[in-house]
Design goal:
Elements (H helix, E strand, L loop, with lengths): L11 H13 L6 E9 L5 E9 L2 E9 L5 H18 L6 E5 L2 H8 L1 H8 L1
Length: about 120
């Protein structure tokens, strides 16, 4: 969902419904990839991926370095997902679903950001 939402000011049920509408409109033949990064209160971090390709499913998980940021854990999960796509040659329509708005916005602006570094 690339629409502007704010978890603190939006009704949680509205956000849930909006997300479900997006998910329910994904073509049935598309590859669905859910990504997540996490970090606990003592600094342990990890990344996870769930892939649904037709009737097949796969789960990937990775322990990240201690004190890895939540943003980085989310980015690692997306990188894991893209590696999986390449390794298994899932070159039909792909939908990567992430709950991290900041990561989605970063990737949406990636070309602009990378162009500034040169």
């Amino acid at each position: 969902m690339l629409t502007h939402t704010n978890k603190s000011s939006q009704n949680p049920e509205y956000l849930r419904q909006a997300a479900l509408e997006v998910i329910n409109n994904i073509p049935i033949e598309a590859n669905l990839i859910y990504t997540n990064g996490s970090k606990n209160e003592i600094g342990h971090a990890g990344s996870g991926v769930f892939v649904k390709h037709g009737h097949e499913e796969a789960s990937l998980k990775r322990r990240n370095a201690d004190y890895c940021s939540l943003f980085r854990s989310e980015m690692i999960a997306i990188d894991m997902a893209l590696d999986f796509v390449l390794e298994h040659q899932l070159f039909v329509e792909i939908w990567i679903l992430s709950e991290s708005r900041c990561v989605v916005q970063y990737l949406d602006n990636w070309r602009d950001i990378s162009g500034r570094r040169e």
